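queue> holo job accepted (fe (ii) ion)
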Amino acid sequence: MNFDDSQTKINLARAFSAECQDGARYQFISQKAVSEGKQNVSTFFKSLAKNEMAHAKTFWTLMSQHLSKPQRNIEIKAGYPFEDGSLMEMIKSASSTEKSENSTIYPSFAKIAEDEGFKDVAEKFKLVALVEGNHFLQIEALYNKLKSDCLYENGTPYEWKCDNCGHTHTDKKAFETCPLCELTKDYINLTELVNTKA
Ligand SMILES: [Fe+2]
Ligand SMILES: [Fe+2]
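queue> job finished
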């Protein structure tokens, strides 16, 4: 099939738009978290935003590799979430976007790309879907811990790490203030914590 006339071209344009918006929303969440003093939540979303922009770049590159010539405008019909709100509401919305990208949108885009004969595009959709699945699990874990007010507690001893100075301390509960640099627990690194499976 000619790529210029394919559904895969449209799906790549939609995926590019979605990833740009995910990246933008995560930067907004990151800014909101800073304004509420949650430095570590901010850092966590900043790193997700970086992932989303890398996905956007991947889709952008595939588009330019497959188009017969550059196109001034590609029309798409698509819906995107606009769910502003509290920090918690925005985190919840992010989690459901990740879930639908992982379980519905990108798997269906991959199938269409395969059927149309664009195996390289199908492969990228599948790889991005896997990352979005991890994002979903991480964001969901973070949301649940924040909601139940147990972000700084763990069922088993955990190595809490200050993102600022690198100090670590292993315990079921995190330190309130880092004994080394004296910043609050809001600087404790969250990445590993939300990777921890229940
Ligand atoms: Fe993404
Ligand atoms: Fe994501």
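queue> The mean pLDDT is 96.
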